[in-house]
Amino acid sequence: MPTPSLRKTFATFLAPMMLSNILQTLFGTINNVYLGQMIGVDALAAVSVFFPVMFFFLAFIMGLSMGATVLIGQAFGAGRIDQVRAVAGTTLSIGLLLATVIAIVGGVFARELVIALGTPAGIVAAATSYSRIMMMAMPLIFTFMLMTAMLRGAGDPVTPLVALAISAAIGLVTTPALILGWLGLPRLGLVSAAWGSVVSSFLTLVWLALHLRRRNHILAPTVSLLSAMRPDLALLPTILRLGVPTAIGMVVMSVAELVLLGLVNGFGSEATAAYGAVNQVISCVQFPALSIAISVSILGAQAIGRNEATQIGAIVRTGLEMNVLLTGGLVVLGYLFSRSVIGAFITDPAVLVLAQDLLHIVLWSMVLFGMATVFSGAMRAGGTVWLPLLISAFAISAIEVPSAILLSRSIGIAGIWAAYPITFSAMLLLQMGYYLLVWRKRAIRRLI
What residue ranges do the domains of the chain occupy? Predict the structure, then answer.
């Protein structure tokens, strides 16, 4: 069972990670408040089109970072610093290569991509401009994401928190300055949010490099790390074996979101704006669930590195407790203050009512989602990724998408959101069943 010391360790690691995710979510949320309040519903709808596209591209880098985090966690737990740097260098080099390809291809074919999503004609031009800038900024975004993830794997959740605070502060000043033309800056309208992200990512990376070098951190951009900035053929297969399934799972999820977005777009631009507002609220509610799952994975990997795999069961139970307390608490607040929260994004009364109704359908299921990710995070710490992936892919492709299509035809747009609770319920039962009946009975060994 979880001990007080384990709960304290978990909370100490989780708190900065949760605050990091809060800042990251608030940055996107307030940017969308700026757009919705200062420009209008069409601007919010145009940015909303890019949500699943961004998720699709980030899926690969998040999968890569998770694979690296597991290996870094195990190497750090074992006290093998050279292996920590080797994993980091290999991961960064592959991530930058992928980001460069996305920046080039995305920059050239942004309009075609936006049109292929079935975007309403009135917002195609705006959505294209925003999407093109964001895709061309992927090298900055990818580097920032990889560095913060790997720092957590090396037992440092505080530096990513400070970095995200700096990034959010810069972005939250830059975006309205570009919207309104403050300080002699050009008035850029919708793309102000995209340029705000670019500026904040660049300046934060500069600060992060200087900060890590000043602390002589094991992941500072020193000669030791830069010399490891190449694909290590001994480590790369293991990183990819851990990361690719995670990326595939996220791609499956993002493809499903693209399908659902297409269904939403078929109900008009008001439905698209409601989709964007509901997604923002869901992102806020999901941040403790995702933080808890990552914490379970990192703490589990470090325990395996120390040859203390028997701690994983207690880590999982602590994660489940935290999920019920934290995610469940936000769900309750979401229901109590749903109208006020949605009203921060949307001023149109009809769209506000629609978004509130949709939020009520889906919000409670975030607790189920969080519990499912705790089990998959624990199994990932031990190097088991394919079965959890297949379970998630099955739930999304065989349950979520068909449910959304069938229910949207029978009860309208509400049917799309009703598919989420159905999916998360199935996902929790399957992940928990595999963990309890199969995975925890296996011997767990260090991968590095």
Answer: 4-441
